[in-house]
Write a structure and sequence with these properties.
elongated; 2 strands; about 220 residues; single chain; disordered N terminus
């Protein structure tokens, strides 16, 4: 029997008849949308996976350690930049619309502080020979800072956004988030940000900034 689409054969109960069952589409809802909160969680999973792999590599294998750490460090920087460019301005926006701007401002301030700490701990790794006790301790410090940030973000910001943001907005942000990471696949410069200044500018109250938080895509136009 030829299958009319990509899938796997299934047997219809009671009839002994093979039918086509579509393969699961990873990260895509039945509605055809993707979700910014799920993409961030996917990135978190990959970060945890890479840290776990690092911990299991022989410290004498410095070439592998160096290569894997370079990939992970660049990924952490890119993920933080993507969140700052795409996610947190919109978290502030939906918080304002829901009458919870104080809470989302606090969550955003904490997130930017966390991103700065993660960048600073990443920079400290370069001060130690790869595979040394000091190097592994410095990498562990990055893991701890990043782990604390991810846990707080998953518990607060992502949960709040799922509750308060519509499905189309979450889809449009997912597209923007994916595009940002794709455009900057080679990495982004590590630049610490002043949390209060970031929030002020993201809310549109910075000097010369319009009040709109629009990213110019889909349902974000005119927000």
């Amino acid at each position: 029997m030829s299958l009319p689409f990509f899938g796997v054969p299934d047997r219809r109960p009671g009839r002994g008849e093979l039918i086509a069952r579509p393969a699961a589409r990873i990260g895509v809802w039945d509605s055809g949308r993707v979700d910014i909160t799920q993409l961030i969680l996917d990135d978190h999973h990959e970060q945890r996976r890479l840290f776990a792999i690092l911990e299991q590599i022989d410290r004498a294998d410095t070439a592998t350690l160096s290569g894997l750490w370079a990939r992970l460090a660049a990924f952490l920087e890119l993920h933080a930049a993507a969140e700052e460019a795409v996610f947190y301005p919109q978290l502030l926006g939906v918080g304002q619309q829901a009458g919870r701007i104080g809470a989302t401002e606090e969550e955003t301030l904490d997130a930017i502080k966390d991103h700065n700490e993660i960048r600073d701990t990443i920079a400290a790794v370069a001060g130690h020979p790869v595979g040394s006790d000091g190097w592994f301790a410095a990498v562990a410090a990055v893991n701890m800072a990043n782990g604390d940030h991810m846990a707080e973000e998953e518990r607060e910001g992502l949960t709040d956004f799922r509750r308060e943001a519509g499905l189309q907005l979450r889809h449009d942000l997912a597209v923007a988030f994916t595009a940002f990471e794709a455009r900057n696949y080679a990495g982004v410069p590590p630049v610490d940000k002043d949390p209060a200044t970031y929030v002020r500018e993201a809310e549109g109250s910075g000097p010369g900034r319009p009040a709109s938080r629009s990213l110019g895509i889909g349902s974000l136009k005119g927000r």
